[in-house]
Amino acid sequence: MSILVLNCGSSSVKYQLIEMSTEKYLAKGLVERLGEEDAKVKHKCRDGRRFEEVKDIKNHSQAIKEVVRILLSSEYGVIKDVSDIKAVGHRVVHGCEKFSESTLVTPEVMKVLHDCKKLAPLHNPHNIHGIEASEKLFKGVIQVAVFDTAFHQTIPEHAYLYALPMEYYKKYFIRRYGFHGTSHYYVAHRAAELLGKPIESLKIITAHLGNGCSIAAIDGGKSVDTSMGFTPLEGLVMGTRCGDIDPFIPIFLMENYDVDYRDMDDILNKESGLLGLSGISNDSREIEEKMISGSKEAKRAFDVTAYRLKKYIASYIGVLCGLDALVFTAGIGENSDLTRAAACENLECLGIKLDSEKNKETVRGKEGFINADDSKVKVIVIPTNEELVIARDTLRIYKSM
Ligand code: ADP
337 alpha carbon to ligand 1 midpoint, in Å? Predict the structure, then answer.
């Protein structure tokens, strides 16, 4: 049976149609630049057929209709009838404290999702549009919401509370939520499979390093701490996000310079990170290329990023009181041997030692161990597969109905 996985962002819809008997995608793609006249559709079938088109697509509803049209088309399609899609799984970024696992979408769940909008204004409204559009298009088909925050709901109070007056938590729900949960969950479980051990017996650190970056400490399969917090801004240095800074810096800038809170939002979320530090790019590939060809600015950005990552790895070994495996995933984690090497440099004192050849070879979607034979900690590169987790959860809920 086939499950459609939808990930609706502010101006894009990513999709995968997954055949659950093999857990392989039949087709996947992306509709981007929604709302523009030159929105772009990119579609790829498992058998290699590809399709690209530029057209006027106004919103999520039109985008999902377009996806269905292509999935059914004679040239680039993979199904004969819409009824071949038995269930739809949606990525939802924020599940507040209400959802610690994936859930069937019901009118009550939609109400809670609307209530959570304030906590994730950049993401949840679009996720909700996607669910509403999909409910209209796939009449009678179950819709499942899978939350980025759910996996981190096991983080204990001492790690999720900020040292602010308690009323801000109680009244406004200000706490650490953590994100990328589906990815951390997937790679931690895959690491346990590769190690041939039950996840309940393992201490694992997972580093999801993409455009957004976060790291999680996972004890016995449960997330016990993670670097992203109330929003996906906290923690590691990212493409354009600053990660951890002294919280007084925004107040200082707003008080003394011509910066208002909207400017501040842009500075912290869109102008900082690799881009802000280097003045070159938010793309780590470009930063690495420039660094190799001698750019001091690129080296500075790379060094700050790698140092922050290393600091988190070391601190999470303390949180976990030991470590069995360190996992790297997502665009940078899966491809950048330089980042992995810099983050692990001189961590032999904590049991982490890389094999530089294996590290260099493990790129472009390869899965594998990159630790030296005498490293106490296993270091593993695992391509993430958030869509598969969403599809599996959707199937589980479908079967339980
Ligand atoms: P998203 O968080 O949007 O899903 P990805 O997981 O695709 O993003 O990660 C995007 C990041 O991965 C970009 O910074 C990109 O430069 C980086 N990346 C991809 N390939 C490489 C590579 N070969 N070397 C270094 N960085 C890479």
Answer: 12
We report the CATH number of the domain holding residue 39 as: 3.30.420.40
Q: Which of 206, 211, 238 for mutating ligand 1's site (highest number of atoms within 8 Å of CB)?
A: 211
Report whether pLDDT(223) > 90. Answer: yes
Q: What is the pLDDT of residues 99-132, one digit of tens each?
A: 999 999 999 999 999 988 888 888 889 999 999 9
* Residue 279 sits in the same domain as residue 374: yes
- Are 66 and 124 within one domain? yes
- Domain for residue 209, yes or no? yes
Q: Max CA-CA distance within the chain?
A: 63
- Asked if 351 and 202 sit in the same domain, the reply is yes
Q: Give how many domains the chain has, as a whole number.
A: 2
C-alpha distances (whole Å) from 137 to each of 134, 190, 197 are 5, 34, 43
Domain boundary residue among 81, 115, 147?
A: 147
Is the minimum distance from the CB of 53 to ligand 1 under 6 angstroms? no
Is this prediction's pTM over 0.85?
yes
Structural domain range at position 331: 194-386
Is the Cβ atom of 284 under 6 angstroms away from ligand 1?
A: yes
Cβ(239) – ligand 1 distance below 6 Å: yes
Asked if residue 231 and residue 96 are part of one domain, the reply reads no
Q: Residue 358 is which amino acid?
A: K
Q: For residue 394, what are the contacts with CB-CB under 8 A and spacing of at least 6?
A: 3, 5, 87, 88, 89, 102, 142, 144, 146
Catalytic choice (38, 47, 84, 148):
148
